[in-house]
Amino acid sequence: MKRVLITGATSGLGRETAIQLARRGWKIAVTGRRAENLAEVAAAVRKAGGEALPLVGSVSDPEEVRRHYDAIKAAWDGLDWAILNAGVGDSENARSFSAANLRWTYEANVFGAAHWLEAVLPDMIAAGSGTVAGVGSLAGIRGLPASGAYSSSKAALHALLESVRVDLKGTGVRVVIVAPGFVKSELTSRNETKMPFLLETSDGVARMLAGIEAGKSFVHFPWQLSLVVLYVLRFLPNRLYDAMTALFPKRKKKPDPNRRP
Ligand SMILES: NC(=O)c1ccc[n+]([C@@H]2O[C@H](COP(=O)([O-])OP(=O)(O)OC[C@H]3O[C@@H](n4cnc5c(N)ncnc54)[C@H](OP(=O)(O)O)[C@@H]3O)[C@@H](O)[C@H]2O)c1
Fold it and tell me: Which end of the chain is less packed: N or C, by CB atoms within 10 Å?
């Protein structure tokens, strides 16, 4: 029975990942700040056939992450997989740029992953095995309009995980970058603009898990949006990219109701 950590499991991709892995009878540690949601996910995991270890708290707090990892070690003696999924994102046009928005976004999307890397990597390296998958985004491939904080946080996460992957080559520890397009979740439910190739949550998660299990180091989906972002937008010269993004619908997103440090 594999032991897996899923951060940000109180809703969206994280919750669905917990349930899909619970159907295989895995041991699943789930984290998130909303205690009630976490209790509901833990119950759903148990109902689906898994063992649940709910850990309430924020990935942005290194001491809390350390306490959570200690609890996992006490219960299961370590982890086989760590899915670093917790993330936030509000839309903000640079005409009203705020460093506070950037900091809030990085605290979850970048430092949240970093705190968990620091906790789990030494034991995985010592064991000579383990898989760490970080949930980035196709939005991290180029700077999207009204998304400076979110796009740059995901670009930072991708580069961080890539460096970790090459450093850990030969240790037996696998590092996977996951870059989804649009998947139904609380995050995307706040988007008021059209989301091309939007996937059902269960479909997005099934694609993510299939990619991780296939041994890929970069898992991206759906293929239609990957094609546009990875093979067209990524290589466009700035002049063309700027002209093209001016044609994108003006991004509108309701603010995150759970926004807090
Ligand atoms: N849905 C998409 O289309 C899409 C596309 C690309 C990438 N992603 C990425 O996928 C991941 C999951 O997002 P989602 O779409 O499933 O959105 P979601 O439904 O809003 O889920 C986000 C999860 O992250 C948790 N979280 C946020 N800040 C946290 C913190 N400081 N500490 C602990 N947990 C925290 C939330 O839990 P609490 O509020 O309870 O703490 C929640 O469980 C994110 O990294 C997101 O950037 C999503």
Answer: C
- For the beta carbon of residue 35, count every other beta carbon within 10 angstroms: 12
**How does pLDDT run along the chain (261 residues), one tens digit per residue?**
999 999 999 999 999 999 999 999 999 999 999 999 999 999 999 999 999 999 999 999 999 999 999 999 999 999 999 999 999 999 999 999 999 999 999 999 999 999 999 999 999 999 999 999 999 999 999 999 999 999 999 999 999 999 999 999 999 999 999 999 999 999 998 888 889 999 999 999 999 999 999 999 999 999 999 999 999 999 999 999 999 998 877 767 788 887 654
Active site residue 231: no
Short-list 61, 60, 38, 42, CA closest to 51? 42
Q: Does residue 58's CB lie within 6 angstroms of at least one atom of ligand 1?
A: yes
Domain ranges of the chain: 3-245
**Which structure tokens are listed for 175?**
């590092």
Superfamily name and number for 3-245: NAD(P)-binding Rossmann-like Domain (3.40.50.720)
Residues constituting the chain = 261
Cα gap 245→148, rounded to integer Å: 13
- Closest ligand 1 atom to Cα of 185: 19
Distance 108 CA to ligand 1 centre (A): 9
Q: Which of 108, 156, 140, 148 is nearest to 220 (CA)?
A: 140
Instruction: Quickly list H helices, the chain.
Output: 12-22, 35-47, 62-76, 99-109, 111-127, 148-167, 186-189, 201-213, 223-231, 238-245
Q: What is the pTM of this model?
A: 0.97
